[in-house]
Design brief:
alpha/beta; 8-stranded mixed sheet; 2 domains; EreA/ChaN-like  fold
Length: 442
């Protein structure tokens, strides 16, 4: 389908060619007014998506005082990076700091683009005397978060650590196997809900006392312990609900992301810093779900929730591409390899942007965008890519003008480069598909 006359006129008026970083000035001027800037990606394995997000994030930090990056990753893994960029960790370089990203898909964060950005952020914080943070939004780290809570409490309050061990002993029957726990919890035979809720409540209740008793301890360590306890509580609910269907677990996951993002903002404010956070996640998490097929299925996402809970305080940017290569697996837990990304389907936004024949542009969506762009297909490639079932696995219907505030299109892209060829161990958690596609992967 060729670009229609109305769409072509709209793109001619509003598309901003990107040839150098300065060409993002107009988009950044809009984004900088927000407290939460949501930077998406159309795949989990495209180098340009990581690179352009890093470029925009650097500008928001350097020019507009953004204080944190929150990403679609587990809290303990990302917190090791946070310690590194803050200068408080023991890692000698960014590659070492990325070592905890062992769960499939390792290439999603253990790649050269993330390594380079993290190295820059550490150098920036050191030179400016800043503590711009790096945090994870996801909830798959239940057992690793339990370990982190216990390590913290062992240092500050051994009696509280013993109480926490008694609470978390509820999981001892399952040998750190979350699927095993999910089956028992769904059957009604066993539930740790009361224990994990009680532990989070007790940790919060004692927080003030621990601050008084350990004034030398960094406040972010207590914040991280509380967040890990929240991860355990929400992950328990997620796994307990796993057999209840995709819609429920997807919604629980993105509601947890909102809780985490809100807590990061509150933590910044307690430190006297502006609540200004950049978020990196897939388009499916950050584009407003109400503008996609997700809404019909009863699904919501972080982009929708941020708009609802912080009206007028967010700015969301989607990323699209037409063709090239992508790092992805053929199925869950298989190795990530470079794969040819098929040209976008004719009735998609990606194909329309390709027909416009501008290789790299930013499109700021205004009040006329909905009529000009209409409703089309949009592509979503996760960590799994199945070109043999391209339409059903990787496309959904969307209204782009209501989904995002802006879109960045890079017409031909290449696969992200993993840091090494090591293959991940078996995943701790069950695979999850994108809610509007059958096989896109999580």
């Amino acid at each position: 389908m060729a670009v229609g006359d109305e769409l072509e006129r709209y793109l001619a008026r509003n598309a901003r060619p990107i040839r150098e970083p300065a060409d993002y000035a107009e988009l950044l001027a809009h984004a900088a007014r927000a407290e939460f800037v949501l930077l998406g990606e159309g795949t989990h394995g495209t180098a340009e998506f990581y690179r352009e997000r890093a470029l925009l994030t650097r500008a928001l930090i350097e020019q507009h005082q953004f204080q944190a990056i929150a990403v679609e990753a587990d809290w303990p893994d990302a917190y090791r990076l946070n310690r590194f960029v803050a200068g408080s960790g023991s890692d000698a370089n960014a590659t070492e700091a990325l070592a905890d990203f062992e769960r499939f898909p390792t290439w999603m964060w253990r790649n050269t683009e993330v390594r380079d950005f993290v190295a820059w952020l550490a150098a920036h914080n050191r030179a400016q005397g800043n503590r711009v943070g790096f945090f994870g939004l996801d909830l798959y780290s239940m057992y690793r978060s339990i370990d982190a809570v216990l390590r913290y409490l062992d240092r500050v309050d051994p009696s509280a650590a013993q109480a926490a061990r008694e609470h978390y002993a509820c999981f001892d029957h399952f040998s750190r196997d979350t699927e095993h726990y999910a089956r028992f919890a769904a059957s009604g035979l066993h539930s740790c809900e009361r224990d994990v809720v009680r532990e989070l409540e007790e940790l919060r209740a004692h927080a003030s006392r621990w601050r008084e008793q350990h004034p030398e301890a960094p406040d972010d360590e207590l914040f991280s312990a509380e967040q890990n306890a929240r991860v355990v509580k929400n992950a328990e609910e997620y796994y307990r609900s796993l057999l209840g269907g995709r819609v429920l677990t997807w919604n629980l996951r993105d509601q947890h992301m909102l809780e985490t993002l809100t807590s990061i903002g509150s933590f910044l404010e307690r430190q006297g810093r502006p609540r200004k956070v950049v978020v990196w996640a897939h388009n499916s998490h950050l584009g407003d779900a109400r503008a996609t097929d997700m809404a019909r299925a009863g699904e919501l996402n972080l982009g929708q929730l941020v708009r609802e809970h912080f009206p007028g305080k967010s700015y969301s940017v989607g990323f699209t591409t037409h063709a090239g290569t992508v790092t992805a697996a053929s199925d869950w837990d298989l190795p990530g390899v470079p794969k040819a990304l098929q040209p976008a389907l004719p009735d998609s936004y990606e194909a329309a942007f390709h027909d416009f024949a501008l290789p790299h542009f930013a499109l700021l969506l205004d009040g006329h965008a909905e009529q000009a762009l209409g409703r089309r297909l949009e592509r979503a490639v996760g960590v799994v890519y199945r070109p043999d079932t391209e339409r059903i696995s990787h496309y959904f219907s969307a209204n782009l003008a209501l989904q995002f505030n802006a879109v960045i299109h890079v017409d031909t892209t290449r696969a992200v480069d993993p840091l090494d060829d090591d293959q991940p161990p078996h995943a701790e958690d069950a695979p999850e598909t994108y809610p509007f596609a059958d096989d896109a992967g999580a």
